[in-house]
Fold this protein.
Amino acid sequence: MTGADATNGHVIRTRALTKRYGELRAVDGVNLEVRAGDVYGFLGANGSGKTTTVRMLLGLVLPTSGEAEVLGMPMPTARRSVLPRIGSLVESPAAYPHLSGSANLALLDATGSDRSRREERRTRIRTALEQVRLNPGDRRPVRTYSQGMRQRLGLAAALMRQPTLLILDEPSNGLDPQGIQEIRKLLLQLNAEGTTIFLSSHLLAEIEQMCTHVGVLRDGRLILQEELDTLLRPTGLVAVRTPDIDRCSTELLGDVVASVADDRLLVRAEDPARLNAYLVAEGVRVDEIGPYRRTLEEIVLEAEARA
Amino acid sequence: MIVVELIKMICRPRTWLILGMLVALPTLVAVLLAVTDLGPRPGTGPPFLSAVLSDGTLFPLAALGVVLPLLLPIAVAVLGGDAIAGESQTGTLRYLLVRPVGRTHLLLAKLATVVAFVLLAVFAVAGVSYAEGRLLLGRAPATGTVSLSGSTLTQQELTWRTALALGYVIISMLGVAAIALFFSTLTRSGIGAALGTIGVLVASTVLLGLDAADALHPFLPTRYWLAFVDLFRDPILWRDVVRGLVVQLGYLTVFTLAAWANFGTKDIDD
């Protein structure tokens, strides 16, 4: 972790990272900050520039301008020392269709420059396959794999060298709900063991359930980058669901009502319990009451509206 | 990396299919000649073919003369065209590059693999056709093989001249390999790259038949392919063989550099 220590714990840092294709700015002045130990969720619609950003971090696409630092070293110049410590899944998994899963991993492993012994390599491949719940003894060619199995194989390839940083583009693609849960558990466990995870996805729920930090990309611009806890902290509002909405908003709570929508009131109040007692004492029928937290979806939509 | 690429080539059924086709054509020719006893008249048809009925030891050369103008270059174009484009198509290229494998390193490993295939193909064709020549076709005259100039070659002379010819055929394919590799870095379609390469070879052949293109002839990649025949004259006629070498090395250098220049800084966004 020497590289990461040298930059105050930054594992990924970009400054004004930009990629232009002719007139189109696919990525436009992006300043990413990912620290050691983060699970960073990189959100954005399809075509927002997520994949191009990921490719620039990995040295596959060269930036038009701006800088990218990964594990404390400049990319793509330092790719020889940076990339061996990164596991990645870029856009979709890929494998030679006529070979088995473990043969694919063995080929990929053999392209590395490290000089491991054969036994060590075999263990490494077996462990990686078991981690993603593929059978290492499976001799069927990848051609016959389902999309979920291919995705798992791609993840196994990313995990094979026990990387310090995982850069995963849409890792739950093609997995069934149970598979998604398994992979989420695996990633969180790796994170607990010290792996930093950079996860790009267009699925809000996936990010919300896993990540400690969120960055939102829209039309190539980073419109939001924040710790998830900060974004989702209590708003100082209490949500009240009641059929007596008119009476509440006019008579009882007039000056502390923040907003009214359908059958829900948002009220500026410190303590939901006290508010509840007051309303009930006044004869209001309360269906539901509790502190109001915004969802990630609302936050993202708000940020997009601002941008 | 080269070892990995060689393993990949060996593990592909396609490699063996192409190799099988390359060996099948001369085999068919040998069987037909043996059955019908009808050789082409001297001076017509592929080189040496008219002589093999009386002297089977020349059949490896005749076999190379049969596959060299079309079948072998197509095989090289297919393999070379697939080198980078094929990886790009399966999506494995990006995973190789983030291992990381250096781009120059990958390019050279791919080129070496194609050359290894040519080696394998040429030796397979020569080996199989040698056996066929001995079994199916005429025995060498006791006095030794007759050279194209009419003098007699001893067994030893014939052997090392055949070795030289094999080497020359292998080198003749370097230009095709480099052109295919260059096209392979331009496109995502292996078939496209192979067809582009074959297009270049067809154009070269057409121009060779055109007197108006006389000035271009010495620079065309296919011009000196059959010059290995000159190795069986007495004394050896080196002029075309040497020119052929120079032309092939020229194509190899130019197109390998072009492939490197294009691939080295290319955005991998498939």
